[in-house]
Amino acid sequence: MDLRTENRALIPPEIVTERLRLRPLAEGDLPWIAAEAGRWDVARWLTRVPHPYTLQDAADFLAQVRAGSIGAVWVITEGNVPVGVVSVGAELGYWLSPSAWGRGVMSEAAGAAVAAAFADPSREEIASSHFDENDRSRRVLDKLGFVETGRHAHVSLARGGEVPGRTMRLTRTAWAMAIADVSTARLTLRRNLPGDAGPMHAIASDWDVVRMLAGWPWPPDPAFTASRCEPVPYEDGLCGAVCRDGHLIGGMGIYGGKLGYMFARDSWGQGYATEMVRALVDASFARYDWDAITADVWADNPASARVLEKAGFRRIGTARRPCAARGADVDAVDFALSRADWRARHD
After folding, report:
1. CATH class name, domain 3-175
2. CA 150 to CA 34: how far, in whole Å?
3. 42-62: pLDDT as tens digits
4. Which residues, in sequence order, are bridge partners of residue 94?
């Protein structure tokens, strides 16, 4: 089934992260939901979960999910074993089985749910809350970039009364900063996330963008774009989405010591490429032991050549290489920035 947020932006029914799979709630999950949400050490931290919690309570919860009154709801699984629930509508909500506490599972799952929600470009913020005593939940929200907006007494069905708590809010911009690998005054570069393939494919559907790239096909291929939006392991380099105010405007990365990038047409001419290339080069030389970073541009792309030269790259040669979009070999100019030259620019 399709799960939708309250503003009806499409949310993926399944999300796969490094360790987890987030999937829709099903009737077969009800006995597990009743058992785990029925634990006092789970229910005491939630607002709308009574204690004891029965199989009928779980069935009622499933009915609410299917009616769309909660938003998008996923069962968090690790190795196909259910370990918790996460939801995002107007608010982010979650709970985790005690057996999965202390291993960063909820940070990973909630981060994926938030990323799916912010894949809707009209979405600007998400709310959440926690009881004052719930330090674990506060740490999850802090990691995602949520900030406190006030104090509030939350009604707890399990405790049978009001419990002091904090309300939290996450803006799109704060979220982008929280997950960024590299930040500048205007931009962030972060690892690719669920939902990035759509806006990246919109960029890759512009002929004037794709003809300046080596391996991207024309006509644009959604499957190819999705493959290029897979997260790159940190040991191989820093690669991902370039964002301005939380909105994806391009992609950039240094993979195995080679730099590449692409930007949406409406982001051209504003110095974004130069700004992020400089920051990414600095971060990469600081994190990896590469002797040099290389790049190449087509000879008919003087704008990219200027970007590289401003960042300290030197021209080291020329060659003819295949361009997938143009379907022909094209004259290319090779560039390199040695570690020694990079260090000299900072001395």
Report:
1. alpha beta
2. 32
3. 999 999 999 999 999 999 999
4. 86
